[in-house]
Design brief:
- The chain has a seven-stranded mixed β-sheet, sandwiched between helices. Strands 1-2 form a two-stranded antiparallel ribbon.
- The termini are far apart.
- The chain is of the alpha/beta class.
- The chain has a single domain, classed as 3-Layer(aba) Sandwich (Rossmann fold), CATH 3.40.50.
- Keywords: Cytoplasm, Methyltransferase, S-adenosyl-L-methionine, Transferase.
- It comes from Penicilliopsis zonata CBS 506.65.
- S-adenosyl-L-methionine-dependent protein methyltransferase that trimethylates the N-terminal glycine 'Gly-2' of elongation factor 1-alpha, before also catalyzing the mono- and dimethylation of 'Lys-3'.
Length: about 260
């Protein structure tokens, strides 16, 4: 039997480096990048994208750009003096454009992940010099379906909800449809003029039927649904993805308002 007290035996058991990960075992973290969105009036919004993220916050989505253009084109009626909430904002381009174009209050939100929220705050700070004094841009973390008291606290005194909600490329999260409808119910002001913009691209075209189930669910929740546009982009966002290329290049836009019987 081996004598475990024998120093020579102990030396033979040396395991130096056994628990060290081999070089290149872990992929290096990707560095943040920057992207630019050119507004229709020529102003350029520059944002930082996180290096990599499971919620794809490292991209500037086609639906986000399209939402920003849609709102800018209609700023006089939809934004001036109005209160706006964006959920799933990622880099926050639509929120920033709303603030620049004169919305009274803008609240930019995404999942309450510290990296995401810090990046949104950074992007909001980059835009400070372009935002008029009459507008305020706030940033917060928010998980869809959770209580909304914190979001409503940003509204001016006397306001009961937001005039405009922005939901750009969020309905692909099929399991979250119920929570998205709940958030809309709790945050959209009870007014015939209030609206939620739901804008998305079917990056996985075979899942489009599941994505579209959001709309009858929203109708059950008290909203009317109107398709407002279908825009074909010049390029797909993910070139290597399979499926119908035309669908992957198309941005669909819907407008949701309170049904009259729910006002």
């Amino acid at each position: 039997m081996a004598n475990l007290d024998d120093d020579s035996r102990v030396e033979d058991l040396a395991v130096g480096g056994l628990f060290e990960d081999p070089e290149g075992f872990y992929q290096p973290e990707q560095e943040p990048t920057f992207a630019e969105h050119q507004m229709l009036d020529g102003h350029v919004v520059r944002v930082r994208l996180v290096g990599s993220h499971p919620l794809y916050a490292n991209l500037l989505w086609n639906a986000g750009r399209t939402s920003a253009h849609y709102l800018e084109e209609r700023a006089a009626g939809l934004l001036h003096g109005k209160d706006v909430l964006e959920v799933g904002a990622a880099a926050g381009v639509p929120s920033i454009v709303c603030a620049v174009k004169g919305a009274r209050t803008v609240v930019m939100t995404d999942y309450p992940d510290p990296e995401l929220v810090e990046n949104m705050r950074y992007n909001a700070s980059l835009a400070t010099s372009s935002i008029p004094e009459s507008s305020t841009l706030h940033v917060d973390g928010y998980k869809w379906g959770n209580p909304v008291d914190g979001l409503l606290s940003y509204l001016p005194a006397g306001s009961t909800g937001f005039d405009v909600l922005i939901l750009a490329d969020v309905v692909y999260a099929h399991r979250e449809h119920g929570n998205l409808v709940k958030t809309m119910q709790q945050t959209l002001k009870k007014s015939p003029d209030s609206l939620a913009l739901v804008i998305f691209t079917p990056y996985e075209p075979w899942l489009l039927p599941k994505t579209e189930k959001f709309f009858p669910l929203a109708e059950e929740g008290g909203f009317t649904v109107t398709k407002i546009f279908e825009k074909l982009m010049d390029q797909v966002l993910f070139e290597e993805d399979p499926g119908d290329e035309r669908l992957r290049r198309t941005v669909f836009g819907y407008e949701l308002r309170w049904a009259p019987e729910h006002l």
